[in-house]
Design a protein that fits this description.
single chain; 293 residues; alpha/beta; Aldehyde Oxidoreductase, domain 3; TIM Barrel; 2 domains; four-stranded antiparallel beta sheet; 11 helices
Length: 293
C-alpha cells in the first residue's frame, strides 16, 4: 500500500471539517477577532511514536494557506512525554477551528504507530506484523499508514486486492477443495496478479490444504492457547508450521498480544496479524497549546 495522496487526504479532511464546523465555529467567531494572530505548540504528553504530522499539515492548509507549520520531529519518530515537537502560526481563528480535527487524526495515528512499534519489537526480526481490515470506517488509509510508520506491514487494503478464503467462505462453498478451486478459477480469468490465502483452524484443515495446494499463504487461526495461569501453548501452531514446511507463506492470528507475540514468532511463522492494532487503538496523548501574539 502506498502513502495516501494529497487528494485522498484532502477528501477526508473536507468531510471531517464539514461534520465538525458546519455553518461555522460560533464560539471562535464570537470571541476571537478576525485579525488576531497566534502561535500554537504541539506537545506530547506521553511516550510513543508520532504519526499524522503530514495529515495535520493538510488540515491547516485546507483552512488557510497562510498558516505556517514547523516540526522538530517527523512521522515515525519516537517522542517522549513533555517534548514540544511542532508549531503552527497564523490566524488564531483558523488555528482554533482546525485544532480538534488535527489532534484527533494525529492522536489516533500515533496511537496505532505506537502499538505497532511495540508489537514489532516484541516479535523481533524475521516475523512481520500485519494489520487487518478491522479499521475505523472511512479511516482505513490513515490507519494502515500509521501501521507502516510504526514499522508494521499492511495486509490487504480491502476485499479487492487479495483472495482471503475464510471459514464462512469454506462453509458456503462446500469445503476447502471447492473453495480453493473456485478462487483459482476466478483468479485465472479476472485477477491473475492477486495472491490467494486460506484460513485453517485445525491440523486436519492444514493437511487438506497441503493435499489440494494452489494457494500462496495459509492463515493459522486461533492455534495459540493461553492458560488461566498465563501459560502460552504454541504446540499446535508449531506443528502446523512444521507440516507446511515452507511450502506456503504462513500467518498466525488469534490471541495476539504483546505477551504472546514472542512465543508466536518463535514458531517460525512468516506473519502475525493483529486486529487490535487498529480496532482497539488507544490514542496517544497530544495537546496543542495556543498563545496570542
Amino acid at each position: 500500500m502506498s502513502t495516501p495522496s494529497h487528494a485522498e487526504i484532502d477528501a477526508l479532511i473536507e468531510r471531517a471539517l464539514a461534520e465538525d464546523v458546519g455553518a461555522g465555529d460560533v464560539t471562535t467567531l464570537a470571541t476571537i477577532p478576525d485579525d488576531q494572530f497566534a502561535e500554537a505548540t504541539f506537545l506530547a504528553k506521553e511516550d510513543g511514536v508520532l504519526a499524522g504530522l503530514a495529515v495535520a499539515e493538510r488540515v491547516f492548509a485546507t483552512l488557510s494557506p497562510k498558516l505556517a507549520l514547523s516540526w522538530t520531529l517527523t512521522d515515525g519518530d519516537t517522542v517522549t512525554a513533555g517534548t514540544r515537537f511542532g508549531t503552527v502560526e497564523g490566524s488564531a481563528r483558523d488555528i482554533l477551528v482546525g485544532e480538534r480535527l488535527a489532534l484527533n487524526l494525529m492522536q489516533r495515528m500515533s496511537g496505532i504507530a505506537t502499538a505497532t512499534r511495540r508489537m514489532v519489537d516484541a516479535a523481533g526480526p524475521g516475523t512481520k506484523i500485519l494489520d487487518t481490515r478491522k479499521t475505523a470506517p472511512g479511516l482505513r488509509l490513515f490507519d494502515k499508514w500509521a501501521v507502516r510508520l510504526g514499522g508494521g506491514t499492511n495486509h490487504r487494503v480491502g476485499l479487492y486486492d487479495m483472495f482471503l478464503i475464510k471459514d464462512n467462505h469454506i462453509a458456503a462453498t462446500g469445503g476447502i477443495r471447492a473453495a480453493i478451486e473456485a478462487a483459482r478459477a476466478y483468479r485465472t480469468e479476472h485477477a491473475p496478479e492477486l495472491q490467494i490465502e486460506i484460513e485453517t483452524r485445525t491440523l486436519d484443515e492444514v493437511d487438506e490444504v497441503l493435499a489440494v495446494g494452489g494457494v500462496d499463504r495459509v492463515l493459522l487461526d486461533n492455534m495459540v492457547h493461553v492458560g488461566d495461569d498465563g501459560s502460552i501453548d504454541t504446540t499446535m501452531l508449531q506443528e502446523a508450521v512444521s507440516r507446511l514446511a515452507g511450502r506456503f507463506e504462513t500467518e498466525a492470528s488469534g490471541n495476539v498480544t504483546l505477551t504472546t507475540v514472542p512465543a508466536i514468532a518463535a514458531t517460525g511463522v512468516d506473519f502475525i496479524s493483529s486486529g487490535a492494532l487498529t480496532h482497539s487503538v488507544r490514542a496517544l496523548d497530544i495537546s496543542l497549546k495556543i498563545a496570542l501574539r
